[in-house]
Amino acid sequence: MTISIIAVLDTNNAIGKNNKLLCYLPADLKHFKKLTTGHTIVMGRKTYESLPNGALPNRKNVVLTKNTAFKCKGCDVVNSVEEVLDICREDENVFIIGGAQIYKLFIEKADRLYLTHVHNEFKADTYFPDYETNKWSAAKIEDFEPDGKNKFSYSFAKYVRKRNECNL
User: Is the pTM of this model over 0.90?
Assistant: First the structure.
């Protein structure tokens, strides 16, 4: 199983405000769909509740919540990281899609980070967790300027966790 975190960050590592994304960036939504379709996505309850149409199609949806009574259509609901790992053990690619608390739980377990860096600062109340950048290598970075559909400049970045040669 490869665990990847996927997120959109502003210049201050902000990811949201009032349980919503900070900006509308159609290119990022397309990028997200391309990367996650056909794979497993893991999210917290608040992220699930922020989705306009519930479970995302053509993906295995897993919701991690402390609320043991929580149910949602089209999703597997679990209550611990261990349950996530157990329910996903046969899955090749697992994408952690938020929110902040879920990112924090998986940041040390992740093999890859797919981060969209929006080159702008927004008012926010939710931030991506701190992580040790020296533990990650940039595998690919693509920069984009604003256009008719995307109001802000942004970069798609793929980071891969550095492996200690002794652990190979």
Answer: yes
